[in-house]
Write a structure and sequence with these properties.
two-stranded antiparallel sheet; GMP Synthetase, Chain A, domain 3
Amino acid sequence: MLEVQVKHLGDVQFEVKARQHTIYCDQPTENGGYDEGMTPPELLLGSVGACAGHYAVQYMKIKNLPAAGLQIRVTGEKATNPARVSEIGIEVTYPAVLTPKDREGVLAAIHKCLIHNTLLNPPKMHVEFAGVQMPVAA
């Protein structure tokens, strides 16, 4: 099972922990934050890009291709009703010339990415309160 713990730090800032790793999530100043971390949608796009890169590099390792210089750019479009990221684009930049077969291989590998496939086949989600709830003093 995968697990991430998120702790409110104040205002619109959060600490996100997984295993022994910590990152911080915030909002830009125009959204009432301090711009000291990525926003949740940026974290989502970062997850897509890192996963795509991981799968591309795995393909390159199998084919004995150098992975140096590989870059992944991920863009997202926002929509409303409901608020969401409505479109995600993944752009791969690689400094060396690849054969058409290897270009297709890298793209096929990216399409096997766990995050990519999760977004294409959304998981069931549920939200609940944990533990005993105490009334808040007025």
